[in-house]
Amino acid sequence: MHFLFAVVLSLLALPAxxxxxxxxxxxxxxxxxxSYRYTPELEVKASAFYQGKPESFLLLLKDTKxxxxxxxxxxxxxLLDGSTEHHWKVYTRFxxxxxxxxxxxxxxxxxxxxxxSLLIEITDCSDLVPEAKNYVRIRDxxxxxxxxxxxxxxxxxYQGSADPGGELPKWLVKQLTLSSxxxxxxxxxxxxxxxxxxxxxxxxxx
Length: 206
Fold this sequence. Notes:
Blueprint: H1 2-13, E1 24-25, E2 33-38, E3 42-51, H2 54-62, H3 67-70, E4 74-79, E5 87-94, E6 103-114, E7 117-124, E8 136-137, E9 139-150, E10 153-163, H4 170-191
Parallel strand pairs: 6-8
Antiparallel strand pairs: 1-2, 2-3, 3-10, 4-5, 5-6, 6-7, 7-9, 9-10
């Protein structure tokens, strides 16, 4: 009995595990769902269904010349040396929108195949490119695109976070981030129909 009592006391003395912050969902529009939470940095999530094959999105994502058509406020993007079929490095610049200064970021993407889905893991690769004058570097980029095959199409989910740099108020970062994410998911519906992204893809497993 004394032993049991001691065990109960020891369990009560253990620190409580902090519950994960809950997601706040926004109203679904045009089949696109958005949500966000703070962990403590802003983390966003989006999902939608698209017709076609997941490999089409890979072709779109790797086509840096298309970035201005689907990434809000993007100025340009280019593949960096050392990019391969399954791992590519991209330098992206963003135009300024008052009162936000121009931004840039350097990311690496790794493609993995799991059963009936494709995963594209995005990580920060800021060390590959020196900081540019008049541009604030976006850092700590962490994101995952999950493309799951469904009947006559695929579900796409994005979840990610980043440090926008500078001293921007939280409300403005949230507003700009969610607005940009929704705009991208809307643009994908048009971009993924482009003939250039319907070509038979190369093998994406590794």
